[in-house]
Amino acid sequence: MKNLDLIAMILLLIGGINWGLVGAFNYNLVSNLLGDTSTMTRVVYGLVGLCAVYNAYKFMQKKAA
Question: For 43, what's the count of Cα atoms within 13 Å in the CB-facing half-sphere?
């Protein structure tokens, strides 16, 4: 599970940095690197979303314990 936790955290950091760049400079790093509406861009966004749900679930499990 440690590898999954590390991957989820890295993807969340990438997503957070990307949103920070969008908010501050109107610059979307993921779209710039992978294409505006490419399949890979959608995959990255989907994985970031799944990682957020995974980390939220883990957080709620720790709070309940």
Answer: 5
